[in-house]
Amino acid sequence: MIKKNSINPDLVEERKKCTFNTLELTHLLDGGAKKTEERKSRETFFLEDPQLQSKVPLEYLSHKEKYEEAVRKACIIFGKVQELQNQGRGGMDNFREILGGQLGSAILKDGNPLTLHYVMFIPTLMGQGTMEQQAEWIQKAWNCDIIGTYAQTELGHGTFIRGLETTATYDPSKEEFVLHSPTLTSYKWWPGGLGHSANYAVVLAQLYTKGKCYGIHPFIVQLRDEETHQPLPGIKIGEIGCKLGMNSTNNGYLGFDQVRIPRTNMLMKNSQVLSDGSYVKSPSSKLTYGTMIFVRVVIVQDAAHYLRKAVTIATRYSAVRHQSQIKPDAPEPQIIDFVTQQYKLFPQIATYFAFQYSATWLWDVYNNVTSELEAGQLESLPELHAVACCLKAVSSADAAQGVEICRLACGGHGYMTSSNLPSTYGLVTAMCTYEGENTVLLLQTARFLVKVWQNRNNLEKFTTVKYLGNDLNRDRPFQRSVEWIIYALQQTAARKIELANRHINERVQKGKAYEDAWNESSIELVAAAEAHCRSFIVETFYNTINELKVSKELKVVLVQLLNLYGVYTALRLTGDLLRFTSITGKDIETLQAWLEELLALIRPNAVGLVDSFDIRDEVLGSTLGAYDGNVYERLFEEASKSPLNAEPVNKSFKLYLKPFLKANL
Ligand SMILES: CCCCCCCCCCCCCCCCCCCCCC(=O)SCCNC(=O)CCNC(=O)[C@H](O)C(C)(C)COP(=O)(O)OP(=O)(O)OC[C@H]1O[C@@H](n2cnc3c(N)ncnc32)[C@H](O)[C@@H]1OP(=O)(O)O
Ligand SMILES: Cc1cc2nc3c(=O)[nH]c(=O)nc-3n(C[C@H](O)[C@H](O)[C@H](O)COP(=O)(O)OP(=O)(O)OC[C@H]3O[C@@H](n4cnc5c(N)ncnc54)[C@H](O)[C@@H]3O)c2cc1C
User: Can you give the residue ranges of the Acyl-CoA oxidase C-terminal domain (predicted)?
Assistant: First the structure.
């Protein structure tokens, strides 16, 4: 039914309007023409493999069938990743794409049961294992002789990991640890792939040796027989059931009944238990939390990718869809011509760029700090932790909100699963909770900020908080510029940190314990961390654009996006700006007018911008967002796949409707 090679005429016109070379932007975002070529060849390699096609849309499968189909595909894709490695076409990009919101979410629309093996199990072996342990386990894991997961969260505790209840008690007579789940709430609950996919796990448990508890430590535990996959004795394991989204990820539960593992299965790079049971302390107890930092770092990139997918769908759809009238008797406009629609879409495009640049910055810093940690230098860890926490929180929250805005921007059709916006939302909103619930993470950033604030004469060693050394009373008169917005956001963040700190101190002076004073001030603390993060994101966007060497035409558009992101952020914080800077109501009108000008400037390039993301139709997986814009044909074609349409009369008519109709006669 879909007219092959016919492009919707509105999209043809939109593409003619574009003022810059979309290919130049594609290359820039991929990291160069060669990287674009590699990506495209990777996409062809995976997406054109007939084994990876699904006969029936995922939504029509049962829970069990969804899982089975996901395992089938996961095995094929990781087999193909290994093939790429063997051909010398390996590397991080393969994993990024296949596990994240691009290629991966095209093949496995509702999550991958083997993700945790790559994203947390192997990284934990690498980050927490000794050289000998790495030699023993990594190859096995890498070759998929074993499949692992990361089992930390329990029924009773996810956030407060010091409160985990699973115990690992050392028995020197046998040189073994005994793993045990003493309560119902100590059952592991949530780990991806744990239900029926993994046969091993890194288990986080309270370490007891010589009668003393030393806090949580990581242990490699075999869960299932390597041959039969039957759960091993003492292992109680299963899947936790249906969720808002991610229904193919096989999240599981796990309980231990006095399960024994060798002493050498404790990951001992940082702390150790010697054979006689003596405990050797880690240089920092927080090194056990290293894998979580890694995942928070990669989530920022992933949030950006999901957002750009959603905004590609909504922008193309908005160019194709006609509705209502702006002037009487005029033809129905493309809905993208409604300024309120532009206000929904274009800030999301700009937000994608903002997150992309922060994600790149964070990834580089993460790698540098990891090398320093390897060399025993721990100095930069607190700042990395603080910035990773707030970027993970803000990017996931804004991406989830942005995807929902895109869904609403598509009206009724956005509510169809075939738009792919509902399931994209399901995947992104999960990010707000996993790997550290967002409020909790913002409070971690706030903890760092308050400490820095209290010692702000000593800021040389930091990168992200230098602005806290500025005079709080400095005033920079309003200007319509991103430089002013950065100043205003930093001023806001600094004043919020100062206020939260002051209110904690006042509460302490009134006799409260510091921790209670902290809790009572925590609304302000979260707001301070968020403001700090937003100023960082705008500044990083600004610094990146200033350094880019691109054509004049492209630069103009990127600067418009930077300005839009800046002014959009500022206007969302109008109350704060009025409170903490000398901005006036008149200046806010100026910002509002600037926002509206920017929307108009970006309008002709909107479709060109999302085209530059160069997301294949299979990756968008959407009736509304395909390159050719044949929206209505696709909606019909997808409706025809509903199993209910396979027969003209459903049996429920005879069974229920007919007797019911008769009964009502
Ligand atoms: C193979 C090749 C590679 C391939 C790679 C491919 C990559 C490409 C992939 C691309 C696609 C991506 C796909 C993603 C899919 C992901 C699916 C993921 C599924 C989700 C998994 C999960 O969901 S898994 C569970 C996560 N579960 C949490 O996330 C718990 C949060 N809860 C806490 O994290 C702690 O509970 C909490 C609150 C800090 C308090 O911890 P606590 O009570 O011990 O600490 P306190 O608050 O007392 O703080 C005491 C002091 O520790 C400091 N500190 C705290 N943490 C620190 C830290 N991490 N590092 C340093 N320092 C730290 C703090 O700043 C204080 O410092 P100070 O004293 O100096 O102020
Ligand atoms: C899709 C998904 C996949 C997951 N995968 C894994 C996995 O593979 N492995 C794994 O180990 N775990 C996994 N998890 C678990 C996840 O890491 C936890 O759910 C998460 O860390 C939040 O913990 P919680 O559920 O205990 O929430 P809670 O901490 O109970 O949060 C509930 C509320 O309490 C608030 N709260 C809690 N503590 C504080 C505090 N100190 N200050 C202020 N407010 C607070 C929170 O802000 C939140 O509003 C997964 C979760 C999901 C949703």
Answer: 483-662
Over range 373-384, report the average pLDDT: 94
Q: What is the pLDDT of residue 154?
A: 98
Q: In which residue are the tokens 């949030």 written? A: 303
Known catalytic residue at 374? no
* pLDDT tens for each residue of 140-171: 999 999 999 999 999 999 999 999 999 999 99
Q: What residues does 459 pair with on adjacent strands? A: none
192 is in an annotated binding site: yes
Residue-number span of the structural domain to which 262 is assigned: 146-282
Closest CA to 93 of 131, 147, 146, 46: 46
Q: Does 296 lie in the same domain as 274?
A: no
Provide CB contacts within 8 A for 197, sequence distance 6+.
71, 113, 114, 147, 149, 250
Distance CA 411, CA 409 (A): 6
pLDDT tens digits along 176-191:
999 999 999 999 999 9
Residue nearest ligand 2's atom 42 by CA = 440
Mutate to test the pocket of ligand 2, among 110, 296, 433, 526 (most ligand atoms within 8 A of CB): 433
* Residue 91 belongs to domain with CATH number: 1.20.140.10
Q: How far apart are CA 276 and CA 294, in angstroms?
A: 33
Candidates 223, 203, 207; CA nearest to 215 is 207
Instruction: Residue 121: count other Cβ atoms within 10 Å of its Cβ.
Output: 29
Of 85-94, 151-160, 361-370, 508-517, the poorest mean pLDDT is in: 85-94
Burial of 661 (0-12, 13-18, 19+ CB in 10 A): exposed
Question: What are the CB-based long-range contacts (under 8 Å, 24+) for 361-365?
Answer: 361/540, 361/544, 362/297, 362/300, 362/387, 362/388, 362/391, 363/297, 363/298, 363/301, 365/463
pLDDT at residue 1 greater than cutoff 70:
no
Task: Work out the burial of residue 346: count CB atoms within 10 Å of its CB; fewer than 13 is exposed, 13-18 middle, 19 or more buried.
Answer: buried
Query: Do the beta carbons of residue 544 and residue 561 sit within 8 Å?
Result: no
Lowest mean pLDDT among 78-92, 170-184, 252-266, 628-642: 78-92
State pTM to two decimals.
Answer: 0.98
Q: What distance separates the 2 farthest-apart alpha carbons in the chain?
A: 90
Contacts of 534 (CB under 8 A, 6+ apart): 394, 489, 493, 569, 573
Q: Which ligand is nearest to the CA of 115?
A: 1
Cα of 396 from ligand 1 centre, angstroms: 15
| Band of pLDDT at residue 472, cut at 50, 70 and 90 | confident
Residues 311, 250 share a domain: no
The answer as to whether 618 is a domain residue is no
Contacts of 630 (CB under 8 A, 6+ apart): 2, 3, 6, 8
Q: How far apart are CA 603 and CA 11, in angstroms?
A: 13
Q: Is residue 230 part of a domain?
A: yes
Q: How many angstroms does the Cα of residue 77 sit away from the middle of ligand 2?
A: 30
153 known ligand binder? yes
**Could you say which DSSP state residue 228 is in?**
T
Please check whether residues 271 and 302 belong to one and the same domain.
no
> How many beta carbons lie within 10 A of that of residue 182, not counting itself?
12
The amino acid at 241? G
- Number of the ligand 1 atom closest to the C-alpha atom of 95: 6
* ipTM score for this prediction: 0.99
For the chain, what is the domain count? 3
**Catalytic-labelled residue, pool 435, 524, 530, 539:** 435
How many residues in the chain? 665
